Amino acid sequence: MTDEPDAKTKTIKVVSVREGYTLGVIKWHGAWRRYTFFPDGDTVWSDESLQEIEEKIQELMRQWNLKKIRSR
Predict the structure, then answer these.
(1) Does residue 3 fall inside a structural domain?
(2) Residue 26 contacts residue 14 (beta carbons within 8 Å)
(3) What's the Rg (C-alpha) of the chain?
(4) Tens of pLDDT along 16-71?
(5) Which residue, of 8, 9, 50, 67, is most buried by count of CB atoms within 10 Å of its CB?
(6) Would 6 be classed as within a structural domain?
(7) What are the C-alpha distances in Å from 31 to residues 5, 28, 34, 35, 70?
(8) Is residue 36 domain-resident?
(9) Please, which residues bridge with residue 14 across strands?
């Protein structure tokens, strides 16, 4: 996980377990007001990998919503 100390939101680098190269990033998408996945070009995804990304996005959204509630 790449966490920028001064950033309001987290950026998560998704890396290939086998090859070690970056496959994409999970980051905040302001237009949609939610975390989304930005895959690098020409990457191929299995259903298991997509499910892991979905679970990470859901976790980030839960954290973001809790932070928002606590700041009220």
Answers:
(1) no
(2) yes
(3) 13
(4) 989 899 999 999 999 999 999 999 999 999 999 999 999 999 999 999 999 889 98
(5) 9
(6) no
(7) 22, 9, 8, 10, 23
(8) yes
(9) 24
| DSSP-derived 3-state class of residue 13 | strand
Range of the domain at 39: 12-70
Q: Which of 53, 23, 28, 57 shows the shortest CA–CA distance to 40? A: 23
Between the alpha carbon of residue 27 and those of residues 19, 32, 41, the distances in Å are: 22, 11, 16
The structural domain count of the chain equals 1
Residue keyed to tokens 């950033």: 7
The pLDDT value recorded for residue 8 is 81
CA 41, 54, 14, 45 torsion: positive or negative? Answer: negative
Question: Is residue 18 one of the residues assigned to a domain?
Answer: yes
What is d(CA 6, CA 32) in angstroms, rounded to the nearest whole number?
Answer: 22
- pTM of structure: 0.85
Do 11 and 27 form a contact (C-beta atoms < 8 A)? Answer: yes
